[in-house]
Fold this sequence. Notes:
The chain has 6 helices and 7 strands, in the order ββααββααββααβ. It is α+β, with helices and mostly antiparallel strands. It is globular. It starts with a strand and ends in a 5-residue tail after the last strand.
Amino acid sequence: PIFTDDNKNAIGSLRLIEFPDRDAALAYIHADPYTRAGIFEAIMVERWKPALNVRQRDYPRKEGTMQFVIHCHDKPDGGARRAPLEGAHFEYMKAHRGIVVARGALLDDDGVKSIGAVLILDVAGRAEAEAFWAGAPFNRDGVYEWTTIERWRFGHV
């Protein structure tokens, strides 16, 4: 679930689930009790390519931290902006691997073109998540059209 920063009110949901194709993902979503009850204002289905081989059940929980999800979409020329920054991006992610739970590119439906990214951080609070994001090369140098940073919490496995 996605929560308010005080962790008291659920305001949405993020699910990173493997499906063979979009139709299977949509079938899952349309069968979900929350979807059928009209809980969600909007539902976004996007293709995500994880950059790390991490599963929620395998991630060691830390005392005193909270998770944030960063969701961003490219500007129309995002690919051209991204290319010269790739080395700096990978070094930045490597330097921050202690707080990055999961990360990966959002792809178009064909799985060819990168259209954005999703990252999950495990940090002390919003200020740390925002500071991390402010220094991220793809963000800092204008690859993204828009970004959201939301409080997220591991669900049940």
